[in-house]
Amino acid sequence: MLTFTTAGESHGKCLIAIVNGFPAGVLLDESVINDDLKRRQGGFGRGGRMQIENDKVCILSGTRKNITIGSPICLEIKNKDSKIDVLPDVTRPRPGHADLPGIIKFGQRDARNILERASARETAARVAAGALAKILLAKFDIKVLGYVKGIGGINSKKVTKDPNEILKNRNKSKVYCLDRLAEGKMIEKIKKAKKKGDSLGGIIEIMVFGIPPGLGSHTQWELRLDGIIARALMSVQGIKGVEIGLGFIFSKKFGSQVHDEIFYCKDESGFKRKTNNAGGIEGGMTNGGVVIARAVMKPIPTLKKPLRSVDIITKKPESASTERSDICAVPAVTVVGEAVVAFEMARCFMEKFGGDSIKEVTRNYDGYVNQIREI
């Protein structure tokens, strides 16, 4: 089984991701991973920490001559701003953060011991692991792309089904949005939030192109792919809601208006849909369409003009603590969302077509594709 785990604190020495179950025989290009790490640090609205760190991965194990050998892959990202032992205690928990629940759960009197691991800095390790998954999926012409749909109530109406167009427009945008008109309005809203000492959230969208039908399963609740994707996205710091396909719009429509009708072409294309309201997943399984997931990120809890709180030592009313933080990290979250969805898609892919080497995986995949054509 393809799995990963992360370790490290925001201001610790480094972040680590350990990936198990990755097949042998795959060439790993560190620059591909570093490109995603750099993109995670970008986007209009990021804070001062991004001016300090220059995230780069070091592959410590699991490869020889840059080719995977089937053993665990250890990815290291060093922190330049490493000062965890000299940072001051934090006794005024921030509303909306892990500070107070973590203090209560772990019996602490210093929120620093909670926030260092709860910090979204941890997502750099997840992006590195997700980049490995994308390298694997690319072997089978599967692409996972994330971008911004909305920030602070300003939403993009642009829709495209072309992955190359998505890449082109997203990479030109300061907020990783496909809509230039919406981008300008988003940037202005972020500037206003900064002047007010406030923060903004938004909506991201992740699309998976080229995924075959049959990943996931209807047979057990934990095997349903939509549930797997929802859990992965909900695990990202700041995410408070997830939808697949039309999502909540389903509640406003008749069934005849939303279900994707099935057609059959006698050529090699086989079964087809003219619409994709289901977001590429039916009954917990991919149906051959583009997988579409959206997630909502709340505004960042750390504010320059902090909200009311209570000092956990004195129990007296105080303003919440302040940390160096972003005004808006929605663009960065598109990269994290892309990574976690990519990893889950790769994990389900390996569960179905798995082998110890990329040759074995390819053979299994090709056999399945031929099987589909015979149906």
Automatic annotation (TrEMBL):
InterPro entries per the UniProt record, alphabetical: Chorismate_synth, Chorismate_synth_AroC_sf, Chorismate_synthase_CS
Gene Ontology CC: one annotated term: cytosol
CDD domains (alphabetical): Chorismate_synthase
EC number: 4.2.3.5
Reaction it catalyzes: 5-O-(1-carboxyvinyl)-3-phosphoshikimate = chorismate + phosphate
Keyword Amino-acid biosynthesis: yes
Cofactors that this protein relies on: FMNH2
Keywords per UniProt: Amino-acid biosynthesis, Aromatic amino acid biosynthesis, FAD, Flavoprotein, FMN, Lyase, NADP
Cofactor binding annotation: Reduced FMN (FMNH(2)).
SUPFAM superfamilies the UniProt entry points to: Chorismate synthase, AroC (SSF103263)
Annotated FMN binding sites: R117, A118, S119, Q237, G238, G283, K298, P299, I300, P301, T302, R324
Entry's Gene Ontology BP terms: amino acid biosynthetic process; aromatic amino acid family biosynthetic process; chorismate biosynthetic process
This protein's pathway: Metabolic intermediate biosynthesis; chorismate biosynthesis; chorismate from D-erythrose 4-phosphate and phosphoenolpyruvate: step 7/7
Binding site for NADP(+): R40, R46
Pfam families noted in UniProt: Chorismate_synt
Enzyme class: lyase
An annotated Gene Ontology molecular function: chorismate synthase activity
Assembly and interaction partners: Homotetramer.
Function comment: This reaction introduces a second double bond into the aromatic ring system.
PANTHER family linked to this entry: CHORISMATE SYNTHASE
Similarity annotation: Belongs to the chorismate synthase family.
Protein name per Swiss-Prot or TrEMBL: Chorismate synthase
Lineage: Bacteria, Pseudomonadati, Planctomycetota, Candidatus Brocadiia, Candidatus Brocadiales
Gene behind the chain: aroC
